[in-house]
Design goal:
This protein is mainly β. It is built from no helices and 27 strands. Among the domains are: 44-198, Galactose-binding domain-like (Jelly Rolls, Sandwich), CATH 2.60.120; 252-324, Immunoglobulins (Immunoglobulin-like, Sandwich).
């Protein structure tokens, strides 16, 4: 299915902004799920000095995954097969690559059998499946120096992307090195991700139709994505991502009907969207006439930043009022 549509690609903060997606063709569609997330800087430099702060390690190994490298100084990540299962080091960040996004790292594959494979992998479906973007198979010997590798993520531009290092043992049988010394297995250091954003503050909303109302609570860049749901339970693949910039729109003021109480007129109004700190009460005796500022009107605040009231004197003739800012 196609992604959300609306033009222009801007939304106003604190405002209900309407979007819709192209209907899915599956006849069993019963509704839609909408994913929203904020896009922020995702550039990263990790030299292993902060431990596994930026990563999810699975399974948790019995050996230290951050250690001294077999050559050189500093620290490195070390993936080994103390147990004959894939050892994973996955970024916590949900990347949102551009056409110029790259990930680079220094790699040293120590003693590894031909059944042990160092992989860098990408997922664009939330981790359901993974694609190799780098592989190196062991050959029974060990590299003596770290080699720098730079991988382009341009093929994943505009997609929610997960990234991981996988020291794989893909077979239920085969040979492997069970030693956990850094001279065995895969050592990784100086990981750098550039020219990318990451997605944060995820939210999922369900709708019964293709329509969705997006209400950003702060300015910035966001992404929206929709997918159909069949039988009220099973979501389909997500559509394309729509990028949206939330801005502070022009103030929108909504007036309630004037309340006449003796010699006073009370005009309640709300700031429906946008920002404003100064208000003026304008009045005119006949529509089509020239609006004049009522300088004697008294402004009070009902709810700061939201609801206000002007109080003025009731005249002997019909009057029309409006509120203006600034």
């Amino acid at each position: 299915m196609k992604g959300p549509t609306r033009r222009p690609n801007r939304s106003s903060v604190w405002t209900r902004n309407p979007y819709r997606c192209t209907p899915a063709t599956n006849p069993n569609i019963t509704g839609y799920q909408w994913l929203t997330a904020q896009a922020t800087n995702g550039n990263l430099v990790d030299n292993a000095l902060n431990g596994t702060t930026n990563f999810i390690v699975s399974p948790v190994p019995a050996y230290p995954i951050v250690t001294n490298p077999p050559v050189g100084s500093g620290k490195c990540f070390h993936l080994a097969h103390g147990d004959p299962v894939p050892q994973l080091l996955q970024f916590k960040e949900h990347l949102f690559p551009t056409n110029t996004t790259t990930v680079s790292f220094k790699s040293l594959l120590g003693y590894a059998s031909t059944d042990e494979i160092a992989r860098v992998q990408i997922s664009i479906n939330g981790g359901t499946s993974w694609q190799d973007i780098y592989t190196q198979t062991g050959n029974g010997s060990a590299e003596s120096i770290f080699m720098t590798h730079t991988l382009s993520l341009s093929g994943y531009a505009g997609k929610e992307t997960l990234l991981r290092f996988n020291y794989d043992f893909p077979f239920s049988f085969g040979s492997y090195y069970a030693q956990i010394d850094p001279h065995y297995g895969w050592c990784i250091e100086n990981i750098v991700v550039t020219n990318t954003q990451q997605l944060v503050h995820f939210a999922t909303n369900s709708t019964s139709s293709t329509n969705f109302t997006f209400t950003p609570m702060q300015t910035g860049n966001y992404v929206l994505q929709a997918r159909g749901v069949i039988f009220n339970e099973f979501p389909l693949d997500s559509g394309t991502v729509k990028q949206v910039t939330a801005i502070v729109g022009p103030p929108v003021i909504t007036l309630s009907a004037p309340i006449i109480s003796g010699s006073q007129v009370k005009i309640n109004f709300t700031l429906a969207s946008g920002l404003a700190s100064t208000f003026h009460l304008l009045q005119v005796n006949q529509l089509g006439g020239t609006w004049a500022t009522n300088a004697s009107a008294v402004l009070t605040t009902n709810i700061p930043g939201s609801s206000y009231q002007f109080t003025t004197t009731n005249g002997l003739v019909t009057r029309f009022y409006r509120v203006q800012t600034p």
